[in-house]
Amino acid sequence: MLQATTRPPSSALSSHPVTRTQAQNLAQAHNTGPAQRPSEAGNASQPAPRYRGAGLILILTAAFMVVLDFSIVNVALPSIQRELHFPAAAVEWVVTGYAIAFGGLLILGGRAADLFGRRRLFVAGLLLFSAASLAGGLAQDPVLLVAARVVQGPGAAIVAPAALSLITTGFPEGPQRTRALGLYGATSSIGFVTGQVLGGVLVQYASWRAVFLVNVPVGVAAAIAAPFLLGRAGTGRVRRRLDVTGALLITGAVAAVVFAVSRGNTLGWASPVVGGALLVAIAAAALSGCAPAGLTAARSKLQAGNYPAARQDLLALRGRQETLSPEQRREVKDDLCMTDFMIGRPTLSLNEQRQACADAAAEPGSKSADFLTRIDQAIAVSDAEAVENAIRTGDLAGAESAATSLASMPGADPAKLA
Hints:
- The chain is mainly alpha-helical.
- About 70% of the residues lie in helices and about 0% in strands.
- The longest helix has about 30 residues, at about 55-85.
- It is elongated.
- The model is unreliable at about 1-50, about 235-240 and about 410-418 (pLDDT under 50).
């Protein structure tokens, strides 16, 4: 007699061997988006943090500082040109270098914050921005100043999306979040206008170096206060991957557009340099935009719990996987496995679910092993029940068929099959 009756009976995958809540926890390992990252809270079941007023003030201060740096330096350009003997055509790179680095890396900074932790990246961005500000304030050479501004750009490109994401995840949907987002938008607008006034005051009563050095104490203080006011990042370990190819392409596309726009008035829009930059942007966007857009749409539907629609998008992506990078192909298969698992029976049979997850688990670096194990367990229970039901009804052929299926499952114990 088959010794498999110690497992509880199951009529659907959602009830055994994993509950729907457990399935949601497993699904979070697939990085379906910022709202489901376990790295932010350590425990996926914990509610989103509710920042107090001081936490929101800290986020708004960081956003204010990043936007302020766009305009505050403009006022100091004449003084910088005179003291460092900048060529007239090169001094604008103090502004352009920051704009290109910031705009080009903004998308990548937001993605990195989602993957590696918003608070962690928020602090890292503040420290990088402050260090570059210090280097700019102490620079004695035009090249060093421009280099410091280029390094400031990535710091700002990390802080800005991380700050916005901290607001959207730190306040519950409704009036609280709406108010916080309104304050964020107002603070950014005020920061851009304030830069013109504050820059003039600092240049007149101190030095052009003050427009950079003023960021240092503010940035360092904010980085120190962040773990206490925003909470510490979770310690949960999950596999984290960036789509490096896609990131480089989209970053190059955005940087090329920013470069073309910033140099168009100077060199002329018919200039080969500006035209070449726009062509590079179009080519990079064409290579990177197709697959990530579809994958992003599918993941948005996953987050909303619309699994059938997400499955359709993922199947369409899988059908043209020759246009995907190896990393994107793995992500599509992982997400399709998780989607099929969440849909469950009776829409999809256990064998259909297993096929999707086995296909995903075969990819290097796949995260679908847990889903495959759960499905195998469910199939084993289903086969065990089929054997016993067939034996009770005298259907020996059916019992033999179910037992053969059970014996073929990974981890089956032949000694328990009689």
